[in-house]
Amino acid sequence: MTTGWPARLESHGVVVRPLTASDAGAWRDARRRNAAWLTPWDATVPPGADARPATFRSLVRRLHRQARAGATYPFAVDVDGRFAGQITVNNIVRGSAQFASVGYWLDQQYAGRGVMPRALALVVDHCFATAGLHRIEVAIRPENSNSLRVVEKLGIREVGFAPRYLHIDGAWRDHRIYAVTVEECPDGMLRRLDSHESHE
């Protein structure tokens, strides 16, 4: 079976590596400092659904169980050796689909520096070249201009619109759907990003 976990990916000072229990302090600090910046885009649990793990360590344990089962890849993002955010490959489907979705968040102090486009490019290339996936999808709220710039910078095309798609910040929210297949970036997403940046 093709696997993509665990993995450490790196480019231009951006490192994508497994989220671990030892990230607890930096993760909590980043979430606390960025509460106002992140809350409008944070996934929430709708009434009546199973609650989220109560602690960061229990969250990491659950994510690592899912990673060993091949259902998710929970990555931390480091910039110059410091914790900067999270990018997670979710809902990995094998069989005839070979599909997954990706979600991410970034500490505001690293915003606007090209960190998340590079992290997403690393993850997409890893999913295609190592994990053997065929299609990666990113769902973004129409109001989330920062996240929209990430997919636009990578040239990931919009493929649809999903009304009330995910429970975000306490309610079911509409999302724009972006997706890329392996055939659309035969030379890799990272090479596409580097080419784009060299022409800016």
List keywords for this structure.
alpha+beta; 200 residues; Aminopeptidase
In the CATH hierarchy, the third-tier topology is known as Aminopeptidase
Radius of gyration: 16 Å
From the spread of the alpha carbons, the general shape counts as globular
Largest sheet: 8 strands, mixed
End-to-end C-alpha gap = 40 Å
Q: Look at the structure and name the CATH superfamily.
A: Gcn5-related N-acetyltransferase (GNAT)
Descriptive account of the structure:
The chain is an alpha+beta fold. The chain has one domain (9-198): Aminopeptidase. It is built from 6 helices and 8 strands; from the N terminus they run ββαααβββαβαββα. It has helices at residues 24-33, 35-38, 56-68, 115-129, 145-153, 189-198, and strands spanning 9-11, 14-18, 73-79, 82-93, 99-106, 135-140, 157-168, 171-181. Strands 1-2-3-4-5-6-8-7 form an 8-stranded mixed β-sheet, sandwiched between helices. The radius of gyration is 16 Å and the shape is globular. The model has no long low-confidence stretch (mean pLDDT 94).
Task: Give the structure's gist in a few sentences.
The protein has 200 residues and is an alpha+beta fold.
Fold blueprint:
Blueprint: E1 9-11, E2 14-18, H1 24-33, H2 35-38, H3 56-68, E3 73-79, E4 82-93, E5 99-106, H4 115-129, E6 135-140, H5 145-153, E7 157-168, E8 171-181, H6 189-198
Parallel strand pairs: 5-6
Antiparallel strand pairs: 1-2, 2-3, 3-4, 4-5, 6-8, 7-8
